[in-house]
Amino acid sequence: MQDIPVVTSPMQPLIAIIGGTGLTELEGPELTQTHDINTALGKPSSLIQEGTWNGQRVLFLARHGHPHAVPPHKVNYRANILALQQLGATHIVAVNAVGGIHSEMVSGRIAVPHQIVDYTYGRENTFFDGDFRPLDHIDLTHPYDETLRQALMVAGKQAGLSVSDFGVYAATQGPRLETIAEIVRLERDGCDLVGMTGMPEAALARELNIPYASICLVVNPAAGKSDGEITMDEIRAVIGTGMGQVRDMLGALLEK
Ligand code: HPA
């Protein structure tokens, strides 16, 4: 891994990858262990795999379970982040399949977003709820860790990919996709990408002070951004090749 200074801890960095739709297992690493973790806030979405990839230890969690079955609004985001912390994760790289709103965000495009607008509701979205931890208010001015974002951009380059270094990520509730009017509103709000799982995940990582960034793969034009309706066949086709590129980028990130 390059460009990620471990300033506050003498520990070796341990990157955790949270895989989303299309990335329920990681083929790169040589598996060394599987962790069946239970946290004070429940079980994470899947067993957590530990492996070695390009000489680095790595953790992998499938956000929607393996096989893919947990809908975005039912993911236990708190248990996922807590479990990764319990296993010693020092950085979290999220992988998110998204719809493209900005003209640059065409199907197959990979972006490393820099901002978030949260449109989700009814999700357990904090550790500081007065029960698990006393009430507190964290800063989220920059929801993604800039050093990790830059490392992802370098990794993209090393993997020979053209990666967008920006993106305002709109987190919607799902599991349905949006209406045209909703996408018009998100665009008016300044959003470039739309997905269902970016929040509360990013905020929870920040609450535990774990640097967090995302690799977004655009798998369809958002509603109204193409002539037709959005089909799962179209999404699956993009995931087929796109997630291979995301894997290459992750492999490059871990390379010493
Ligand atoms: N909208 C919301 N989430 C998504 C989309 C979309 O168009 N595509 C993939 N995840």
From TrEMBL:
Pathway: Purine metabolism; purine nucleoside salvage. GO terms for cellular component: cytosol. GO terms for biological process: L-methionine salvage from methylthioadenosine; purine ribonucleoside salvage. SUPFAM superfamilies: Purine and uridine phosphorylases. Residues 15-253 form the Nucleoside phosphorylase domain. Pfam families: PNP_UDP_1 (PF01048). Substrate binds at residues 196, 220-222. It comes from the Bacteria. GO terms for molecular function: S-methyl-5-thioadenosine phosphorylase activity. Its EC number is 2.4.2.44. It is an enzyme of class 2 (transferase). The record marks 178, 232 as: Important for substrate specificity. It catalyses: S-methyl-5'-thioinosine + phosphate = 5-(methylsulfanyl)-alpha-D-ribose 1-phosphate + hypoxanthine. Phosphate binds at residues 21, 63-64, 197. Keywords: Glycosyltransferase, Purine salvage, Transferase. PANTHER family: S-METHYL-5'-THIOADENOSINE PHOSPHORYLASE. Homotrimer. Catalyzes the reversible phosphorylation of S-methyl-5'-thioinosine (MTI) to hypoxanthine and 5-methylthioribose-1-phosphate. Involved in the breakdown of S-methyl-5'-thioadenosine (MTA), a major by-product of polyamine biosynthesis. Catabolism of (MTA) occurs via deamination to MTI and phosphorolysis to hypoxanthine. Although this enzyme belongs to the family of MTA phosphorylases based on sequence homology, it has been shown that conserved amino acid substitutions in the substrate binding pocket convert the substrate specificity of this enzyme from 6-aminopurines to 6-oxopurines. NCBIfam families: PRK09136.1. Belongs to the PNP/MTAP phosphorylase family. MTAP subfamily. This is Probable S-methyl-5'-thioinosine phosphorylase.
